[in-house]
Batch of 4 targets.
Target 1
Amino acid sequence: MPAPIRLRELIRTIRTARTQAEEREMIQKECAAIRSSFREEDNTYRCRNVAKLLYMHMLGYPAHFGQLECLKLIASQKFTDKRIGYLGAMLLLDERQDVHLLMTNCIKNDLNHSTQYVQGLALCTLGCMGSSEMCRDLAGEVEKLLKTSNSYLRKKAALCAVHVIRKVPELMEMFLPATKNLLSEKNHGVLHTSVVLLTEMCERSPDMLLHFRKLVPQLVRILKNLIMSGYSPEHDVSGISDPFLQVRILRLLRILGRSDDDSSEAMNDILAQVATNTETSKNVGNAILYETVLTIMDIKSESGLRVLAINILGRFLLNNDKNIRYVALTSLLKTVQTDHNAVQRHRSTIVDCLKDLDVSIKRRAMELSFALVNGNNIRGMMKELLYFLDSCDPEFKADCASGVFLAAEKYAPSKRWHIDTIMRVLTTAGSYVRDDSVPNLIQLITNSVEMHAYTVQRLYKALLDDISQQPLVQVSSWCIGEYGDLLVSGQCEEEEPIQDEVLDVLEGLLVSNLSTPVTRGYSLTAIMKLSTRFSSDANSVVSIYGSSIDVELQQRAVEYNALFKKYDHMRFYSEHCCFVQILPALQVQSTHPPCFTGSIYTSSLFYRFNLHVLYYLVSLLFQANDLLDLLGGNDVVPVIQTTLPTKPASAGGELLDLLGDLSLSTYSKNGLKIEFTFERANPNPNIAVITIHATNTTEADMTEFVFQAAVPKTFQLQLLSPSSNIVPALNQGSVTQVIRVLNPQKQQLRMRVKLTYTHKGSPIQDLAEVNNFPPQSWQ
């Protein structure tokens, strides 16, 4: 059989291929020849064939059929064969394949070989692809080589020990005695790998971290020698002595000094020396300075040293290299919360980064700029950020607008400035404002009572100029619906529009192609609101949308029509009886968007709905769908739970004529027990007052407890707020809630209840029917 071609010839031949198909044909032909050689057990050219196979593997072609040939080369006595065999094993084998276990004995023999280069090959292979089983079997040999005086073997054994510790952490203590003298070695390769080994051990074991903290003075000494040493051609990189070793030592010092006062104190001086003496004209020096800054910020360093670190990052911002500027911005963003004043000194440089062409730098600069905003610089920073919002790419506008809203809410110097800033955002980037911003803005405007006239005027003018920004249109529609009468009452600073103009604008939004269904819903509600204060026929406008293809808009129109047909005579009755009076100030106790929880007040004629109930009437009705089929389905009205403040029975004399100790057990299941107690309201004897008492006999609290009820249409029912939404465990308390039932025809009371709660992490829902009310409760 002729001798196979050499590796160089194969590479030259493959490079002449003009197409991928031609290259594949060459590879397949050569692979066939290599397979034939392997089958004939050709020992002469096995090394050459495996080398060519590895090249094909690097090109992405399958080479798994050469795995066993690699093992044969490893078992050879020739160094050239072993070198190619070990290289092939590292490329073609891993711990997922059982074949690699066949190497264990060969590696063990080579670790004890008389030639250091063979030992080095075995250490490299074990440190590259050794499995946990191999590491357990060969850890002893690695530990012996770690103690040898041969620096060539010690540095390779240290890296191999790192791999062993990662695979089998419980073997860490085996290498502890060998680490005692590692830092005394003068060879930089051994020092480097020793620091890597110590770092791995400290990161994986708190005990090792405590043990090695005593090495801080020795590490400081090594780092000082590197800084003060003269020119050394062997280790010099761009005028800096062994920057790789310096970076490794700084990382280890960072781990050792974290949360430890003594260790931090011992390294403060050397960190200051590195920070002030390192050359910054080359990237090598910047890498060392960056690691120094990270170490200073992570340990318990002195305040002056932290200011020095932040000043270094500030100098990085002026560097022409974009990577260095990005690293500086990211690091400043991490430290701004702990060293806010020091970072503030570089505010102008950070703001200038907003003009950078690189999108990554712009994003980091934007995030850092918002982190720097406080009550003292709010006006200047908002001016810069709003200018950035005008000119930035669309991908930044949503985040920037949200950041402006949050900063303005937190640090606004005045209500007028706050509203002007919001208006600027809505008019320049309204289409990019997130959905949750609209209810937040509505809440702000509602609570700024003295600014209602100014705000509605600004929003009305903005609406005339541009209706393409949907969040702007939604907020404007809401404000006009609430405070549209201020536009025509003479309270605005400029010329007021007439009523028809305001209504025409809102009706134009309903038919505009730019309006979304949500925007049309806002406009529809605004028209209904203004119908109580303007002389207009809102019913004709609303009725058109009773057949809209949008389900929510259709149902809203139907609900409004039904409401005004039934109570149209009350539309202009009085401010206190109006269905849709102006929304009161919203009380929001969290950072979430405001929830427009409403109120229903009992009257002898009707229930008065505030606007926030009307806005969400459709969705609230759907929440009660489970109750709609009660008692035959069509004779039941679902009840919406409200937040009307409740008073005890003894307060104000509202609940009189108690019915003694009359009570009714209505539900007992899964440890939850519901009891009804009854009272009679005064002066209307047709209203029964029922108080529910929910108790819990289990060992865990029942959270998110919600009680809902439904009654036939001949009754009218009102649910007041519960005392809590948590039913305490072991009967340690109860949740109470008051129900008012109007029964003008003195019929027997029937009710279906729906219970929803979470118990031990599992949501539970149940229905119950109550038909055994005592006669005293309804007669």
Target 2
Amino acid sequence: MDNEDEYPHGGDGGQTSADTSQSKSLSSSYVVYFGAHSHVGEITEDAMDRVKETHYDFLGSFIGSREIATDAIFYSYTKHINGFAAHLDHDLAYAISKHPEVVSVFPNKALKLHTTRSWDFLGLEHNSYVPSSSIWRKARFGEDTIIANLDTGVWPESKSFRDEGLGPIPSRWKGICQNQKDATFHCNRKLIGARYFHKGYAAAVGPLNSTFESPRDLDGHGSHTLSTAAGDFVPGVSIFGQGNGTAKGGSPRARVAAYKVCWPPVKGNECYDADVLAAFDAAIHDGADVISVSLGGEPTSFFNDSVAIGSFHAAKKRIVVVCSAGNSGPADSTVSNVAPWLITVGASTMDREFASNLVLGNGKHYKGQSLSYTALPHAKFYPIMASVNAKAKNASALDAQLCKLGSLDPIKAKGKILVCLRGQNPRVEKGRVVALAGGVGMVLENTIVTGNDLTADPHVLPATQLTSKDGFAVSRYISQTKKPIAHITPSRTDLGLKPAPVMASFSSKGPSTVAPQILKPDITAPGVSVIAAYTAAVSPTEQQFDPRRLLFNAISGTSMSCPHISGVAGLLKTRYPSWSPAAIRSAIMTTATTMDDIPGPIQNATSMKATPFSFGAGHVQPNLAVNPGLIYDLGVKDYLNFLCSLRYNASQVSVFSGNNFTCSSPKTSLVNLNYPSITVPNLTSSKVTVSRTVKNVGRPSTYTVRVSNPHGVYVAVKPTSLNFTKVGEQKTFKVIFVKSKGNVAKGYVFGELVWSDKKHRVRSPIVVKL
């Protein structure tokens, strides 16, 4: 792809000509990306200052004024990422994009956090997730691994970030505690660094007040994700008395650092590319071992994607980057953060739920979920009705069905339990609307799309959420009964739920629209009703009407599943410090499970068998990931050759690499990237051959192969056994795909390839498009 293809024609507003008298208020903000720096040795302040000067000179050569260029640039990326963010108009940005030293120029796009909170967009964990005590001890609980989190900052007073029992801060750490304008914010030997980045946000939304000058978490999201990844042991945690247990992160003794890049939402988006790149540049330089990123945008070209760019530079420094897949499911091809050098995480349930039953007057019980902190009088029944039948005079039927503000008539709703439809407005807001209208309780009914996907919300009145099937049964009872009545039982904690895990309906799915040759997401982890640290600055519902404050909260989203994998990566980084990010990803993927606890295949929210487009390699099993047997390894050169094969401009790839990289000739086949999953995106010919190489990281052993063929495809592996005599030994094998004869339905089909020595089971998902 040449620079013209990379440049987003049309921009996102601004003036129509490159006028040197351009006004910031009339221009848009763009990122100008040059690839990598050529720093040698220690990166000094003088070296970074020289980079800034070259950026001013470069832009000044286009504008005609170095002074105006200096004023236009609001970020210079000076450490590992080479580029700047500036106020530019469209034509000027386009002209810059044609310069041979420029990899790409792209708008300072808005990104969003991948949490569902109490919105809809269309402690105790699952047993397969929790590392055993022996595994934790062998990995020293992630001790001295440094996990960085790009998010809404951190609430430093949380017990999850206490530093009792920790030694001195690792000497390699170069980060800071950016608290000069917030004297109440303090770091310690656990929370060893905190920074904030808001110039990209300000470029989009306008001037900011002094409350933005702090890494403090005023949202709750950042504290939740960071403590999930690496929070300390905190006993006696519960949410309104539910889920009582010891809260702990995946790497509970790791050091943590917060990089605040997300702010109050504007049109549903909280984060901006320019800030994300600045945070990546800082986290890499500061000394992070793992970077956790629970945010993302629409899938786009890798060179126009701040997360893809930042994570590539991190991978060059052998830093593991873990990202959320997005909350745009259950539609196909919605997955974001799809670069092959990062780990992409989907969301699934765990074997715990916060249950609340709806009991009807006919004696039927329907099990729902809720974290309501109020309850109806014991065994007392109330009239129950569909919310649409309590419609206010001037409200639409749809608004009343959704229980939107002002849609219900208090005379009709008073003293009743109302059934509201899930969707569009916040789930907890629906309950408040019912309460304001005089209702005593709410039943939240899932749609066909959300199916069995239930979320336990901290409702402000007695409430429970039901599956679409159960909701339909309740609606039928109401319509067929002269005086329907019901009771909502108090919330309770149920363990050992079956089936679990189940894919969350919101979890974004593959195939990747950017690089369908790579299966994304890579893995799934718990992401529904996850209990972790929170902020005291807002209520658990984030609604202004809610005065409640919690130190821990239950939240759902791929934002919550992502840091589970970050925590596991921290353990592996501590246990195997020489492993590459690709090796760590391979260990996590090849030891995952595709089975639930019944046991049966993992299902989606509509009780259908889920596919690798939902869960990637499967649900994480950290106890097995610590001893994977074999790994599929990759390095920076492999990723660069992959980009060459994707038809990115060779000169672009060379500049991107920062070291005059030359694409291999002939170009490497896209299907031969040594990834732990195998994807053949178009089996049109009679035969396709794929190559993979595995490295032994266990004892000497002989592995034999077993293949489950995708429907309509015959798969052969050569050789069928691999004998390893030492650690580090590598073996290459071929996988031959042949389309079956006869009429075979077109579309994607799935299988698996497993190497086993009877102790290890090294599994790779297979995806083929016919």
Target 3
Amino acid sequence: ALLSSLTLSFFQHALNGGIRRYHVASVLCQRAKVAMSHFEPNEYINYEKLEKNINIVRKRLDRPLTLSEKIVYGHLDDPAKQEIERGKTYLRLRPDRVAMQDATAQMAMLQFISSGLPKVAVPSTIHCDHLIEAQSGGEKDLRRAKDINQEVYNFLSTAGAKYGVGFWKPGSGIIHQIILENYSYPGVMLIGTDSHTPNGGGLGGICIGVGGADAVDVMAGIPWELKCPKVIGVKLTGKLSGWSSPKDVILKVAGILTVKGGTGAIIEYHGPGMATICNMGAEIGATTSIFPYNTRMKKYLDKTGRADIAALADEFQQYLVPDAGCQYDQVIEINLSELKPHINGPFTPDLAHPVSDVGAVAEKEGWPVDIRVGLIGSCTNSSYEDMGRSAAVAKQALAHGLKCKSKFTITPGSEQIRATIERDGYAQILRDVGGLILANACGPCIGQWDRKDIKKGEKNTIVTSYNRNFTGRNDANPETHAFVTSPEIVTALSIAGTLKFNPETDFLTGADGKKFKLEAPDADELPRLDFDPGQDTYQYPPKDGSGQHVDVSPTSQRLQLLEPFDKWDGKDLEDMLILIKVKGKCTTDHISAAGPWLKFRGHLDNISNNLLIGAINIENGKANSVRNALTQEFGPVPDTARYYKKMGVKWAVIGDENYGEGSSREHAALEPRHLGGRVIITKSFARIHETNLKKQGLLPLTFADPADYNKIHPVDKLSIVGLADFAPGKPLKCIIKHPNGSQETIMLNHTFNESQIEWFQAGSALNRMKELQQKSS
């Protein structure tokens, strides 16, 4: 199914051309004037420009192009002169639009306000989905969220009105489902301030997760930089059947590629199950994921009121599919006919198990087999078909007098999905089997869960149809063993109450004492009637918002206007202390936790009190406990960083592999910069986090020899020398000073290009933008 493929997507000199203003990103199509969205009737799809750019690049490269290349190169700022080499050169691109969720939109809009520009240059939207905590059910939780977050919602609403940004009110649904229903289309290039933006690839678009500073570039009309992606092809053969679903495709791919195997690459699929697959591409580090334009997309566009877009896509179809004979950097082939239902976890989304094996593995590893809670929905699996397949499983249990043994929750992906499953009876079936319908929001998937059934530190198991299962992500309990699988498997396991149940082979006992076996579920991909849109939750920006006042109180604990970071002083970074040497996995959840901290996402100083509190210190094996090198006392990481800043001491962080994987949250870069950090040295970085660090004026560097990670100890001092000659492709020298007076020198690599070096020298990308604006005026 299309929506299921979106789930897969999930689980997977700036001003040289002048600043574009007032939505000039989209030019009228000469063949047909078709709006990008019915919410923006005067912003048109420009397939002719895409066609022109693709033809220029194809002639230059003299080879067939993959679909990913067509759409990416079709959005080049200068297709005739742009240097193009997969995995090496940086591309300057002109995305069609920007989308921001409320937790990241706060900092993005604060940065845009700092830019001094009057209005966004491309169509942009804000989506209120992250600040609604799951507690007692949809309506009550939504009312509570509106009350608690009134200040933030008012800021985002008024900022949207002033600067020309559409505003989706709380209760609208999850950003990615809203994009799928309204904004994604074949050939679009969309960037979003959430790592699961690739969900839109299920409709044939290049949709990429970024940090807020990247979004500000695009909203300011500045070409956006992206390292030219490699392209991994995934060839899907055969046909899904039985309990297997598109979710199992991405769970299988995650097991093959691991959490970093897709880094720097676009995953290009051929076959069914598009949205779910694209969504979770983020879990393998992929830049994004995409499916070629096909009849399923056409049907979905038609069903969501966009038949005119489908007709235009038909006309330009040759540019929305890969060229025959195109070459991929890597090819993976999966036979869907042989694919078994999978469940991945715990603690990482790439630990793949067939559902038939997970019970035995859990017993062997000492993982709890009793399931405390099953949770379905989220941006990855909340389509109409997902809800229908889960309801089909629940209906069988009800027919035999059974309800869920585990607690069971359902998160609709959007108001449209909620209203439609209510109308068609799915919601009531899920309630009857014991389910609790939550608000149309992210909820427990991102840690917005006021969980009451266990105590923190209690070992337990949950199963979800979400995309991530890092330690403590869902409920802030490090002992919660979270597994991700398809919604129908979650439903079946919740009815059985144990990981040892295999719905393909095992029997349940009905209320009458008779044994029965669940049949593989089936459901309509799209509703037979039109979707029910539900309540109208969209706020159009006014034509002229210049008179709109945006209020940020100086005494607010939720919002804080930004002050520019200090410029580089032109000197080497000498005798830096090591704040922490991180042991093992360090995601953006470890660097800047979500959950209860989400309320501070618009206040940099307050949110900085969670800096690296989840990272494990190699010196003592503990989280949030580091040695203060000046006092020799152990204390919390943020307190130690603040002490160093107060004393005027610069500091560094040492990390392991794939540092910063996970969410796109730029707070994980803003916080270390705010508290005095200057350098992050690791074995490797996740793509979005590395870019976010550069944008905020930090130096993300990698060991030329990964074994040098072992040469640095938490008590050492570090000096980065040669910064006066900082240049693209030129390694930097690091001098390690040990407490005994001895020294070692190692080499560090970087991926900075010339404009990114200017960000570092100016103190941040935003500072550099302002410098260029001043020169331009």
Target 4
Amino acid sequence: MLRRVRQSLRQVLFLMARRPDLLCGAIVLGVLLVLAVKFTCSRAKNVVAAARPPVRFFSPDAPVVDLYLGQLDQVERLRSVAEVSFIFFYAPWCAHSMAARQEVQQVAKKLAKQVQFVAVNCWWSQGKCRRQNRFYHYPVIHLFYRRFGPIEYRGPFLAPYIESFVLRVITPLTYLPSRGHVEEFLSYHEPRVVGFFQFNSSPQPPGYITFLSSALQVLKRDFRGVVRFGVVTNKQVAGAISLTEDETVFLHRRFNSSLIFPRNDLNFTSEAICRWVFENRETVLQWLQPPGTKSRLLEEELTKGPALLLFVPHDPLGSQPSPALQQVADIAVRYHSCDNSHHSSWDKSFSFHSLCCQSVVLPQSSTSVCEVCLSLSWPSFATSPLHCLFPPSIQGGDIFQTYLRRCCLHQLPSPVSINSATAMGCSNFLDSYSPFSQYSACCRKVEPQLNESQAKEESEMQSVPPSLIPPFSVPQPEGDGITGLRCQTNRTLRFYVLDVALNWPLAVRLGASGNRSASLEQEDDRGGDGSFAAIVNLKDEVHYVLQHTPAATLTESLEAFIRNFSAPYSLLQRHLVGEEDRKGAEEEASRSDEHTQSPPRFLITELTTSSFLPSVMDLQKDVLLFYYTQWCGFCSVLNHIIIQLARLLQGNGTITVARVNVARNDLPWEFMVDHVPSILFFPRYRKHLSVKFPDNLPITLPNLLRFILQHSGSLHHVHKPSVETEGPGHSPFLGSEFLTLQREVQALHHARERLSQQLAQLWRDNRRLKFEARALETENAELQRERRSLEEQHREKSRQLSEAVRRLQELADASENLLNENTLLRVLLRALTDRTEAREQAEVERKETEQKRSHLAS
């Protein structure tokens, strides 16, 4: 191969040596080619315009240091001299950054004296911020407390929420100077952590700095600051919660024993304290804040079990929670407060007990309420803090239930032998030998309280064999029906709270009124505050909406709502959510003219959740219903066939072609289908004999027409007695009379619906007029205040004008006097000038005379 290359080069060189002109031409051609490539590349570089230099993002009057060139070095310098720093990373083109800019400016104007606000353009390609940081979204807010940080803010970009988070960072600890402050601090439903530190030895003990860092560490995981940290410096005040040792961290819990941070087992670091708090805290009410983007936050919470979603108004800057939130928190606390009369784990005097109890969730088929307790009998228990920790092998749910089945579930008496309201069986077991600890399990079956009639039925049931008795009994609520309900039912609810102002679209999707202002007006009329509640059971694919009653308060309505859901045979009705009926006026007109059999205005009737049953169950019409979704490709292919069918049947007033979007409209279970597209036919007069289009037939126009003609209802189907109704007591006359009565009843139903709609419209008009009159009265009062203000301003201006005129007159008089005096002075000055000149002239003449005399004398 190399030989061939060498031979080729020799031949080329030999030819160039023999023909020098060929060599010169090749050189010139190569130079031209290089110049052409260079010129083309140079032009290509000039096609891309240089990026425009960035400009200020914040207004000059805002107390925000705007580093629009991405100077990250200046951020470090400003942060090093400030107690608390607020860093706002933005992109100038980002719409979210532009929206958050106004909110940040409002917060900066309020807290500029306490916080250093800095904004950094992290999109400028030549800036240091872009080179060192890789943000996947904008804007990003970081807060620094001295050298601790960054604490990223993950909440909504609204001024009240941002300001609340900044205030949490400024004061992460709450000082508790007295026992009253400690009791008030621990009285809220949120988790509370108290640290006891004595400041006698040093200004800031090392443990205090770690405790402060742990409070800031918690804010990284929870931007709302639900877990609050308090600090006690007085030993007598610390004795209210049985704290005796210095540098002790106390976690307050309502339903189980409160805990003390185990410094002997865990490192005393901020990360360890934060992790310990989140692992052992009790949460009865959890805040949810969907980010508004693609997220599985809501799904992850709803898959844990039935959830009570409460949409309440919330003010992040309020010193006290809203009344609605206080009522919800009280209900949640009472719901989780199980009856621990045998082994109580909480004492109002903040003293510890020697029992640690934990409830066990049993299978749904059981009505047993079981509780496992750890009995401690340490000799030094009175002086040592209680460490209520179950072994890992016991905390597992399967092992827990295994112990319960082995020790005490078999000891429960059968329901037949129960004479009292409850039956209890207890047993003791040992997980491992210990001379100071022992486990005990107590289970009880809750039976209903029977009245006289039920007691008679119960006595009759005594003769029934035990195998025929149901394995469960209906629990009867005790007291108010909410306290301890969590441990009396297997349909346990999780309580979630959402800000109604931020999550109103989700509330609308669950069944709230679509118009927020209209909903607030209705709540004001009922005396409410605009809250909304719904129970979502993702496993059963159902949800229920709380229906407020005018005479009931929010607490009463919620308690009844929870009790009805927790009952084994719930009275709650599944709530169906559908699209807003955009053709309401046309359908209302068609319903009003149904008795005249007028032809429909539209080829295909679009049904929603509200209009489904009235249209499909109309006895006077055959209804062909087409089930579809917007994402189904096969449904789109069949649209032209359905349209052709509707055109063919347009002149027939007894057949309606309708369709329903099952992805956006919830339907009763009995009307749902297992796949789309599906076609159902509801014949008139025989709605109970609805027929589904066969799956093995292709959906074509001839097949659909043959299907309709085969199953359509007519009068001869009604007058002709069927096999089931044939007999001596049936006749065609009775059938026709029955049809006439059905038509009259249906006409009365339609008249009642129209009357109720008219009354509702009149009520809405009356409400609207009342609000307009109230608005006009407010405007009139405002105009009256403005008129009085203008009159006062007019009088003040008149007085000021009179004063100015008087002063001008005084100035004019003074000016005239000055002119007269000036004239007199001029006359006197002139006279003095003339006299002086005369004296000077006489003096000159005298001197000249003396000179002449002396000259003559000489």
